[in-house]
Amino acid sequence: MLALRPRQRIVSVWLPLWATDRLRRELGDAAPPSDVPLLLAGRDGSRRVALAVDLAGRKIGLSVGMPIAKAQALFPGLVVMDARPDADREALERLALWLQQRVAPIVAVDGQDGLVLETTGTDHLHGGEAAMLRDVVHRLQGAGFTARAVVADTLGTAFAVARTTKDAVVVVDPGNCAKALSGLPVGVLRLPSETVSGLTDLGLTRIRDLENAPRAPLTLRFGDGLVRRLDQAYGRVGEPIHPIRPVDPVMVSRNFAEPIAAAETIARYVGLLAPLLCVELEKRGLGARRLDLMLHRVDSAMQVVRVTLARPVRDSKYLTRLLSERIETIEPGFGIERMELFAAQAEPIEQRQRVSALTEEPTADLSGLIDTLVNRLGSDALYRVVPLESDVPERSVQRVPPLAPVTDASRWPDQWPRPTRLLSKPEVVQAVAELPDQPPRFFIWRGIRRKVKCADGPERVFGEWWSRDAERTVVRDYFRVEDTNGERFWLYRAGDGEHGETGSQNWFIHGIFG
Amino acid sequence: MAAPVTPPPLDALREKIRRMEGRLGHRKAAAPLGVPEIDQKLPGGGLPLGALHEVAGGGDDAVNAAVAARFSAGLAALTGGQVLWIAKKADLFAPSLQQAGLPPTRVVFVEVESDADGLACFEEGLRHGGLSAVVAEVGRLTMTASRRLQLAAESGGALGIAIRRWPRLANGADFGKPTASSTRWRVSAMPSAELPVQGVGQSRWLLELIRTRSGESGVFEVEAGDGPAGLRIAGAPTPPAHRIGVVAALGY
Fold first, then answer.
1. Which residues of B touch A373 (CB under 8 A)?
2. What does the pLDDT read at residue B94?
């Protein structure tokens, strides 16, 4: 059973001050200043109690569950407002939908102040797990929300770590759940409060105590919920996540009477669903920018294939091909009983005139190839290089996305030969040269002594004083030199050869000519 | 361009073989290099499009691949369309490609982490059909891999150039192993001609055409002029000005 569980990566996002942060954001300028304690009141039976307390309130000792009258008596300056759990819940669902569009296809609301995302196989689209989580947390913080995000193999672990850590972003490496859990209190296992107090009475305060305790008596006393939560946290038992759905999704699905598992069968049904989805898209005049293929397994786990597209697309053959390439990443387990194909992000398709003038040559459409490669390598791997106005060689190039508009007018100045290879970091060479402006007679690079036969230069590059103060006086003198074998190098001297403040006067190699 | 005159019966036979191989759709075209001495050694009077070519640098250039990259950029520029350039190490300096005839509008770069990824992208690019040339910097290239690439190039019609680049000089011996590529070149830098004044003359390369399928091999000493002029045999008189615009870009 253990071996059959697919590798999963689950993100738990915790918004500890969700209700108050949300209210402050909603009120905008009318909200109380952030240093004034804010308390949201609700009813608990006949009493009015605090349902949410903001950071300033927590600092002065207010806590959730405190009677309002007591809090007001203790701190006369605090602001009390009515809690609106329904609005909070609705906003949390909207946030979940937003994350579903941006980050991962499976997103669910977790309690009143948390979200769960399954990011298996999608993190490479965001530059790795840590970068993905940082991005999420930064965006939430930018909108005024305190947030923590933790990724782990199981929901239980991610949940527990998120509620106990002090860091905004934590990545629990695959297979490290047990290590991450062992020292945490039992209270973060998502247990009923009476179970937690019962365990505390028994002296089982840490998760590792619980893990080491015999199971039968625990189950007898607390029911099987306790052991199930423990197993879920350790990844011994699966835990399905029920993702939220957008209100009006562009989606097609198919149920199977018999579960399917073979790659060919999956491919065949992908081939059947894609045209149906394209019909749906066509009805609305949309094209897919992001596609999620969700596969419900018989053991209630879910597998997702996410594909991103550079342009809105409605070509069923093409979508089928992109999805089919990712079929190898699916672990069907005991079989798949339901398949959903879902355009997670759809945009209107613009109709363009193909070629307007007879003289204009049609340019090939590369978006298909670029999609294929980006889905395989990640979005940073493909780029075009365009000129930037700078005389400093390493600053004269800039990477842009492969489909960014580049005009014929953007060219580098052509008057001087440029090396084919530019070393990412100039390397120091030992050189002997006449001062102030003669090329070196010879130089030693990577242990090889090269005698200079002829040289062109100097080409003087001045520091960019407008970008950095330290570059005010800096000068580089570039020389193109050819050694006795005919190999050509781009050397420079840091400094003008006369004045100490222009540089160290050391020689560097910066490029190799073809 | 003086293409070798092929007797008609041979043509008919070749056509027959092509039909047997099921490659009727793409009759191979060729891109002439603009140097008669080289072009007449190549089948069809130029570099066959829709085929895989290998380029390696000689000496230190097996590691740096600067001359090899410049030469390959010139070849890719001949094709006139979009170029995909796949590399593991992103140390290519784009302004130099522009001087070789590949402005920013024409090149998409792909940075890969492993040779295996690189070869997969290479094949994908060759098969796509929208690109006119795909250049990939690869180290090891097995017979199987090169055959896949050759077939992909045939089906897509793009010019495939594998720049062989090894992390260490010692690995360069790999270049001797057989592959399915159509042509195999080795380019090495040579001392340039002495100028009457101080300065560096035009780049001079020793261009070894080690292998050509259904063509001849040969060794040429070429000079690559500044700007969009093209290769010419070293020591030959400078081509008249009107040809400069006609001969496709090969950089210097």
1. 110, 121, 124
2. 92
* Interchain CB distance below 8 Å, A422 and B130: no
**What is the CATH classification number for the domain harbouring B40?**
3.40.50.300
A34 and A110 assigned to the same domain: yes
- Mean of the per-residue pLDDT values of chain A: 86
- What gap in Å lies between CA B64 and CA B187, rounded to an integer? 12
Residue A306, domain extent: 251-348
Taking contacts as CB-CB distances below 8 angstroms, the residues of chain B near A417 are: 96, 99, 226, 252
- Are both A448 and A333 inside the same structural domain? no
The series of mean pLDDT values per 10 residues for chain B, 252 residues long, is 63 78 61 85 86 91 89 88 91 90 90 91 90 92 93 90 90 86 92 86 90 88 66 62 38 36
Classify residue B32: in a domain, yes or no. yes
For residue A373, pLDDT beyond 50: yes
Residues of A in contact with B225 (CB under 8 A): none
List phi, psi (to 5°) of B6. Answer: -100, 130
> Which of B156, B135, B132, B153 has the alpha carbon at shortest distance from B81?
B132
Asked whether A259 and A266 are in contact (CB, 8 A), the reply is no
| A123 and A183 housed in the same domain | yes
| Record: contact B94-A364, CB cut-off 8 A | no
Mutate to test the interface with B, among A420, A425, A459, A487 (most CBs of B within 10 A): A420
Instruction: Say if residue A323 is in the same domain as residue A432.
Output: no
Whether residue A20 has pLDDT greater than 60: yes
Chain B residues inside the 8 Å CB shell of A486: 188-192, 204
Q: Does residue A192 sit in the same domain as residue A48?
A: yes
> How many cross-chain Cβ pairs, A to B, lie less than 8 Å apart?
165
DSSP state of A321: H
In this structure, are strands B183-190 and B159-164 parallel, antiparallel, or unpaired? unpaired
Question: pLDDT by residue (tens digit) across B149-182?
Answer: 999 998 888 999 999 999 888 888 888 888 999 9
CATH number of domain containing A10 = 3.30.70.270
Q: Give yes or no for a cis peptide into A458 (omega within 30° of 0).
A: yes
Q: For an interface test with B, which of A363, A383, A416, A421 has the most B Cβ atoms less than 10 Å from its Cβ?
A: A421
Total structural domains in chain B? 1
Residue A255 shares a structural domain with residue A117? no
